[in-house]
Write a structure and sequence with these properties.
Blueprint lengths: L1 H16 L10 H14 L4 H27 L3 H15 L2 H16 L3 H12 L8 H30 L1 H17 L11 H25 L2 H11 L8 H11 L3 E2 L10 E2 L4 H30 L5
Antiparallel strand pairs: 1-2
Helix pairs in contact: 1-4, 2-3, 2-8, 3-4, 3-8, 4-8, 5-6, 5-7, 5-12, 6-7, 7-8, 7-9, 7-11, 7-12, 8-9, 9-10, 9-11, 9-12, 10-11
């Protein structure tokens, strides 16, 4: 546990001081390869989509596992360095926060088009409603969802199964983004990528949603989670958004009938900064818990 915590702290520190990875996207080559595989495999069936996922993910996972195995026979110091680098490449904490704050700053300056451009860069989707409230709402939701994919899920899988699992989680998220769209081209082919990402994100998403409540308004978070999670078709986005918006008092969940869907409050640039602050509180909370557990173990509290 202590070694794992040290690796996490080093990876987070690297993400802090080198968030742009030398201005070279670490998985850009992978996206280009995945697009090439999709062009060759995609004939509109789930079986082909499953085979494509195996083709593009299998060699990378095998390469990570073999590299770590070889390094373990050379020096465990190299294994720790390798683990730090892998986790660092799979985290995206500071870049997510920076992009969200860039939207907030653009909105404060009245530059709606610039703000919309930053948000489109975060989500990869066009912004149909270029108003301050719509852009701010979209950015807050992007932060709440991407905090799980870019931070909590990688940390969770690294702690549970190490670098191989964290790389698989990152690849699954990328393939879902590339292939999981609900369009005619990917309706069946993207099914395997989308379900794999849903599976790997299921437990971390609920831990993250619970964390939003712990670090925000716990009662409102759980109440909105219970009443509003079904508003979103994505099985992981629902708990994240319902709990996060409730934790920040940005969604009113009435005690009306079962048809009640809640009332969303008008959002502005300041709420984006609140969402980023919530993200930081969640991360610091779990790091503090890990430090306490490591300290307790070090001093023999857990035997």
């Amino acid at each position: 546990m202590t070694i794992t915590l040290i690796i996490i702290l080093f990876a987070v520190a690297l993400d802090r001081f080198f968030p742009d990875r030398g201005r070279i996207p670490p998985f850009l080559w992978y996206e280009e390869w995945a697009r090439g595989v999709e062009q060759r495999f995609n004939a509109g069936t789930r079986g082909q989509g499953l085979a494509a996922v195996a083709v593009v993910a299998g060699p990378v996972i095998l390469g990570v596992a073999l590299t770590r195995y070889v390094l373990s026979h050379v020096s465990y110091s190299l294994v720790y360095v390798f683990d730090i680098l892998i986790l660092y490449l799979c985290l995206d904490l500071y870049r997510l926060a920076h992009r969200a704050l860039a939207v907030s700053e653009a909105l404060d300056g009245g530059d709606l088009l610039i703000a919309a451009g930053h948000l489109e860069g975060m989500t990869g989707k066009a912004i149909p409603d270029i108003t301050e409230s719509a852009i701010a709402q979209g950015t807050v939701e992007a932060v709440l969802k991407q905090a799980n994919a870019a931070i909590m899920a990688p940390l969770f899988w690294f702690i549970v199964f190490g670098p191989v699992a964290v790389v698989l989680e990152r690849l699954a998220a990328m393939l879902d983004r590339l292939w999981g769209h609900r369009s005619a081209q990917y309706a069946e082919f993207g099914w395997a990528a989308a379900r794999l990402n849903d599976l790997l994100g299921w437990i971390p998403a609920r831990i993250t949603a619970l964390s939003y409540g712990i670090m925000g308004s716990f009662e409102d978070a759980l109440h909105c989670w219970r009443r509003q999670a079904g508003m979103w078709s994505d099985i992981n986005s629902g708990p994240l958004l319902a709990s996060g918006l409730g934790a920040m008092h940005m969604s009113v969940c009435d005690d009306g009938g079962e048809e009640d869907t809640g009332t969303v409050i008008t959002v502005n640039a300041a709420d984006i900064r609140r969402a980023v602050a919530l993200l930081w509180r969640v991360l610091l909370f779990w790091l503090a818990v890990a430090l306490l557990m490591a300290g307790a173990r070090l001093f023999g509290v857990f035997g």
